[in-house]
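Example 9 (inverse folding). The structure is encoded as follows.
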C-alpha cells in the first residue's frame, strides 16, 4: 500500500510517525510534501527511505491513499490545483474536521473519507475518527480501516457528532494536560512538595491510570468508588472539584461547537455552500 501525505505540520508528521512505528507502512512506500520543504526533509531524516516530493501532484502519482493534512483555509486551493490528477482507484483522506465528506466529494473525483487522528496515536493507542464518503466501496473502507487499526482504534463517527468526538479524542489530551498541570500547580503552591516531584508523581499516576483502563480493570465510575473511602481525604477533594468544576465542561463543549460553526461557515463560503 503506497501512502501519500500532503502537509507535514504537527498532525501530518504525527501520522507519518504512527504509520512507520506501527509498521502499517514502510518508509519507502510513503511520499510526503510540505510547502515549507524543510519540515518534510526533517521527516525523511527521521525515517530513512521516505520520499520527499516537490509538488502535491507528484504525491498523487505515487500513492494509493493520500492523506490531506493542510489547514482548512488552504484546502480549496490545494484541491483545485489537483483537479485532473486523481485516479478512480485512489482514496483521498482529509484530517480536517470542518470540511465534510460531502464537500470533499464535490471536488475530488475519487473515493473520499475523513479521519481525525489523535496525538496519542503516536503510542499506537487511542481512537481515530472515521467518516466515509457515500461512494466509498467496501473494499476501500476495509483497506483504510486496516491501515488505521495498526496504530489506533478506528471509530466511525457521523457528521453531526464529529466536533464533540474530536474534542474528546483529539483535543482531550490537551484539555487533560491542562488540568493535570493545574493540579501540579496547586500541590506545589499549597505545600512544600517540589515541582519536580509533583510532576513525576502526576505523570506516573496518569500512566498507571491509563493501563488500568486499557486492561479493563476498572471503569471510570468503579475507579472513583474504589479510591474514595467514606469520610476520607479523597471524598473531601472530590467535593471541592464538584463545586469548582460544576459546569466547566458544558461551557467548554459549547464554546468548541461555536468555533466549529464559525469554521464551517468560512469553509462553506470557499466551497460555495454544502450540498447534502
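The amino acid assigned to each position is listed next.
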Amino acid at each position: 500500500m503506497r501512502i501519500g501525505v500532503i502537509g507535514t505540520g504537527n498532525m501530518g508528521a504525527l501520522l507519518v510517525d504512527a504509520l512507520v512505528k506501527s509498521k502499517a507502512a514502510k518508509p519507502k512506500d510513503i511520499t510526503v510534501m510540505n510547502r515549507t520543504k524543510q519540515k518534510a526533509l526533517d521527516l525523511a531524516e527521521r525515517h530513512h527511505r521516505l520520499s520527499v516530493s516537490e509538488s502535491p501532484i507528484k504525491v498523487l502519482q505515487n500513492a494509493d491513499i493520500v492523506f490531506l493534512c493542510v489547514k482548512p483555509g488552504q484546502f480549496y486551493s490545494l484541491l483545485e490545483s489537483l483537479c485532473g490528477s486523481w485516479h478512480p482507484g485512489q482514496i483521498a483522506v482529509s484530517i480536517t474536521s470542518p470540511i465534510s465528506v460531502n464537500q470533499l466529494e464535490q471536488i475530488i473525483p475519487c473515493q473520499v473519507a475523513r479521519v481525525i487522528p489523535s496525538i496519542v496515536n503516536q503510542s499506537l493507542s487511542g481512537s481515530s475518527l472515521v467518516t466515509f464518503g457515500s461512494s466509498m466501496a467496501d473494499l476501500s473502507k476495509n483497506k483504510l480501516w486496516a491501515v488505521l487499526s495498526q496504530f489506533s482504534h478506528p471509530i466511525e463517527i457521523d457528521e453531526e457528532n464529529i466536533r464533540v468526538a474530536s474534542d474528546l479524542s483529539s483535543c482531550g489530551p490537551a484539555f487533560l494536560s491542562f488540568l493535570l498541570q493545574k493540579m501540579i500547580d496547586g500541590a506545589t503552591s499549597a505545600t512544600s512538595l517540589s515541582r519536580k516531584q509533583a510532576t513525576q508523581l502526576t505523570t506516573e499516576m496518569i500512566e498507571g491510570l491509563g493501563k488500568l483502563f486499557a486492561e479493563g480493570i476498572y471503569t471510570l465510575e468503579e475507579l472513583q468508588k474504589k479510591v474514595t473511602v467514606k469520610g476520607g481525604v479523597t471524598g473531601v477533594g472530590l467535593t471541592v472539584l464538584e463545586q469548582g468544576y460544576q459546569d466547566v465542561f458544558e461551557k467548554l463543549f459549547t464554546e468548541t461547537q461555536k468555533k466549529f460553526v464559525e469554521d464551517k461557515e468560512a469553509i462553506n463560503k470557499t466551497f460555495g455552500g454544502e450540498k447534502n
